């Protein structure tokens, strides 16, 4: 089966900064994959290129079987994204924004789809509010509604639960699990929440300074680094510690 995403030798330079440096990976259809890395590792730049929003310096991206630079209009209507860094137009209400996006994506019953999402994502009480006057957590939920408005087959999520309280964050994760189970959609998500990654993702790509420095399923990485949590694996990889279990202190040693 054709992978939902195929990324080959993707590179993006901003002047002398190589934000993404010769990155290659593929995401099987229906999989959920995490893109992890510390601040400035290149996650947002990668996602922007995967959306066709940013032109690569070199390399190629195929999304749902189409080249994203040459053939983006064949595929963009089957993709969507959410990002805390992209604001909806502030003066329009949440409802107006969602209708505009639904119509831009050619959703046949735009009003019906927005009402359905408002109900499912518990944002009905926000529909008449200006998008610029929402709290950070409310914006995150509205961004998710926008990301799902066209029933995307390929969903790119940049920190989908940023700013959400633990209860709402848990609820959004459950919703994403249901969406995937119902639709078979493929998801690539950048996250700083390691519990979220363990829960949602089949595999993990670890970026450091624009390069993929390790990858595998959460279970494989936990075993490889001899750790109990992805938080510890993340710290090992981000701090360039080698993938081997730490020795237990001998019983007569006093821990420092
Ligand atoms: N438009 C730009 N012009 C110049 N440099 C940029 C630009 N966008 C990103 N960078 C640089 O590219 C590198 C990667 O940034 P990017 O935003 O992709 O990181 P990130 O992994 O998403 O980080 P964070 O977790 O902090 O969101 C950083 O060094 C950043 O300063």
Structural account:
With 256 residues, this protein is of the alpha/beta class. The chain has one domain: Rossmann fold, CATH 3.40.50. The protein contains eight helices and ten strands. It has helices at residues 43-50, 94-104, 110-120, 136-148, 166-183, 194-200, 218-225, 230-238, and strands at residues 5-14, 17-27, 32-36, 58-63, 66-67, 79-82, 154-158, 186-190, 203-208, 211-216. The strands form two sheets. The chain has a six-stranded mixed sheet with strand order 6-7-8-3-9-10, with helices on both faces. The chain has a four-stranded antiparallel sheet with strand order 2-1-4-5, with helices on one face. Strand 7, helix 5 and strand 8 (186-190) form a beta-alpha-beta unit. Helix 2 (94-104) crosses helix 3. The termini are far apart. The model has no long low-confidence stretch (mean pLDDT 90). Keywords: ATP-binding, Nodulation, Nucleotide-binding, Transport. One of its GO terms (molecular function) is ATP binding. Belongs to the ABC transporter superfamily.
